[in-house]
Design goal:
The protein has 196 residues and is of the alpha+beta class. It has one domain: Dna Ligase, domain 1, CATH 3.30.1490. The relative contact order is 0.17.
Amino acid sequence: MKAILKLLVLAALCASADSWAKVDKKFERWLGRTTAQVLGAGDRVEVFVVGPQPVGSRGSADANTGNQLPPGTPATVQRYPVRQVAPGQGRAFAQQLARLVFDERSYEPRLYPFGRTEMKACTFAPGVAFRVWARTRAVDVLVSFACDEIAVAYVGGRREMLVGDIDPARAAFVRLAKSALADVPEVATLSEVRAK
């Protein structure tokens, strides 16, 4: 009987370790509960270099890749064409990305997602995409270093990507991208300070 009790306690501890992380309500309102929970519980991350312009709504391919993609690689991430695939990252990387996304200090207070008094005059053009997996569910986080913005969306969800201005956290996002894509010239040469 004691052995069964020990197994039940051990199973409960393991289940709680993988349970959804508690996320601030402000971020749940912005991203939606499911997206926030998946991002907070990420256990692995796929890393992609993506083209800056979305492909057509019918999924017409981007002919500018110039790279042979591994089998099973998605053609697009949130309609942005995949140009290159980097080695996958583990739980520690997923947690680091989630900490940046869920840190209120990552965002310019006057701009989206929490401020509404100003808008940037640039077009979101990502170069890097992270697909964060929590078991079988995934969330995409696309990063535009041209505008210092991120866009977050639940994979397979009906909502549009939700954008946030990350001027204050640019350096941290650049370091994170470089840690996963150090051999990609356009990422390796990114500055931690955006030229104005």
